[in-house]
Design goal:
- With 182 residues, the chain is of the alpha/beta class.
- It has a single domain, classed as P-loop containing nucleotide triphosphate hydrolases (Rossmann fold).
- It has eight helices and five strands; from the N terminus they run E-H-E-H-H-H-E-H-E-H-H-E-H.
- The longest helix has 19 residues.
- It binds shikimate-3-phosphate.
- The site of shikimate-3-phosphate has 11 residues, from helix 3.
């Protein structure tokens, strides 16, 4: 079968905020001896501004445009790498189509709203989309609805990895065991 992917040496991690994309990405990169890049970090470095500040300064619509431009740039680099994306990245513009065209190695780190809410509630002030939550249970309800809306995109990943009750190493092993970089 002809390989039409633009960057088959790329492993892309997607998933909701707090699902562990960056932590898993760093550990996976170390295990596979490849580079790790985080799209949010690349955006923050390019705009010399944190993501919450950029979100506030530019507004959601412009942030998504910036994110789309930076994703295009990140996908142009065809070295062996792990790339973790922002929670919303796959769900805007034609991003999920670009992601799927780039590589067959797209993993959705899936977590339940309850575990995400428990992890995210203490960090909510630094996260513009959930900073309004008054309680963990309110956040859990918000996350459940939000994931329901986003699942159309998340579920287009080549593989879902359930991360609840798994250590970082177990998630890394689950990804590494099914991925052969060229
Ligand atoms: C967002 C997730 C964040 C960041 C921005 C928007 C989202 O990234 O890109 O705050 O829409 O889910 P992380 O998932 O890395 O926290």
């Amino acid at each position: 079968m002809q390989n039409n992917y633009t960057n088959p040496n790329l492993i892309i991690l997607i998933g909701y905020m707090g699902s562990g994309k960056s932590t898993v990405g760093v550990a996976l990169a170390e295990q596979l001896h490849v580079d790790f890049k985080d799209l949010d970090e690349q955006i923050a470095a390019a705009y010399k501004c944190s993501i919450p500040q950029l979100f506030q300064k530019k507004g959601a619509k412009e942030f998504r445009q910036i994110e789309n431009n930076m994703l295009l740039k990140a996908l142009k680099n065809d070295t062996k790498r792990i790339l973790s994306l922002g929670g919303g990245t796959p769900c805007y513009h034609n991003n999920m189509a670009l992601i799927k065209k780039a590589t067959p190695h797209v993993f959705y780190l899936e977590a339940t709203p309850a575990s995400l809410a428990a992890r995210l509630f203490p960090q909510r002030v630094n996260r513009p989309l959930i900073s309004h939550a008054q309680s963990e249970s309110e956040l859990k309800e918000f996350v459940a609805k939000h994931i329901f809306e986003r699942n159309f995109f998340y579920r287009q990943a080549a593989q879902n990895i359930s991360v609840d009750n798994k250590s970082v190493q177990e998630v890394v092993d689950a990804i590494a065991s099914t991925t052969n970089l060229e």
